[in-house]
């Protein structure tokens, strides 16, 4: 359903809050089918299952952070086209979020207990980045997506050989993240100056280390 009515700041605040609660505590539904749906479930031993669950929890947190970053950036975006661009990417990230949650359940595991914290921190970072202007906003998307693409590659290497279902999900996510970065580049992203990319990499390394366990 679309509305031509301009959203008021209160509308936007309520939408943002609803989205945050859905992401952290709810189970957002995917629009697209889960890429692992047709792939046979192969029994993993305990160590393999634990490792796969740790990696998929990291990926799930990554998607929680993506939702929060994009919503934080969209909340302060000056240009309606940039805002639409951010919210459109966030919709695809919602598919990723749902697929990772499905896989965590199949692996008898759970999302990170710290998701409220990851969400709040990422929303704040997104809003700060967004306040620098729309070129920065898009530059931030490019850098985030490229870093996520690189860590998905690491996970594809590290997943147990038998875990074809996690791998199928990550392959589609990787292709989507690459497209998000390309789209943001085409929409006029500026290249982020040092030390921003390395600070982002350090923050995501910390997140990955903690989320693998918690
Ligand atoms: Fe994603
Ligand atoms: Fe993405």
UniProtKB/TrEMBL annotation:
PANTHER family: 5-DEMETHOXYUBIQUINONE HYDROXYLASE, MITOCHONDRIAL, COENZYME Q10 BIOSYNTHESIS PROTEIN 7
Name of the protein in its database record: 3-demethoxyubiquinol 3-hydroxylase
Cellular compartments annotated: Cell membrane
Keyword terms: Cell membrane, Iron, Membrane, Metal-binding, Monooxygenase, Oxidoreductase, Ubiquinone biosynthesis
A Gene Ontology molecular function term of the record: monooxygenase activity
Chain sites annotated for binding Fe cation 2: 93, 145, 177, 180
Keyword Coiled coil: no
Binding annotation for Fe cation 1: 63, 93, 96, 177
């Amino acid at each position: 359903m679309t509305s031509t009515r301009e959203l008021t700041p209160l509308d936007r605040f309520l939408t943002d809050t609803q989205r945050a609660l859905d992401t952290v505590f709810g189970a957002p539904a995917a629009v697209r089918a889960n890429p692992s749906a047709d792939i046979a479930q192969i029994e993993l031993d305990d160590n393999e299952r634990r490792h796969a669950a740790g990696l998929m929890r990291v990926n799930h947190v990554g998607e929680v952070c993506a939702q929060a970053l994009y919503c934080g950036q969209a909340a302060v975006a000056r240009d309606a086209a940039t805002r639409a661009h951010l919210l459109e990417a966030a919709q695809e990230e919602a598919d990723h979020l749902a697929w990772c949650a499905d896989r965590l359940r199949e692996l008898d595991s759970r999302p990170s207990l710290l998701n409220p914290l990851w969400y709040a921190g990422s929303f704040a970072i997104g809003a700060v980045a967004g306040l620098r202007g729309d070129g920065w906003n898009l530059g931030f998307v490019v850098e985030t997506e490229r870093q996520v693409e690189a860590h998905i590659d690491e996970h594809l290497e590290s997943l147990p050989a038998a875990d074809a279902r996690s791998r199928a999900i990550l392959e589609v996510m990787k292709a989507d993240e690459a497209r998000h970065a390309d789209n943001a580049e085409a929409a006029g992203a500026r290249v982020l100056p040092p030390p921003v990319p390395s600070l982002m990499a350090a923050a995501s390394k910390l997140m990955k280390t903690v989320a693998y366990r918690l």
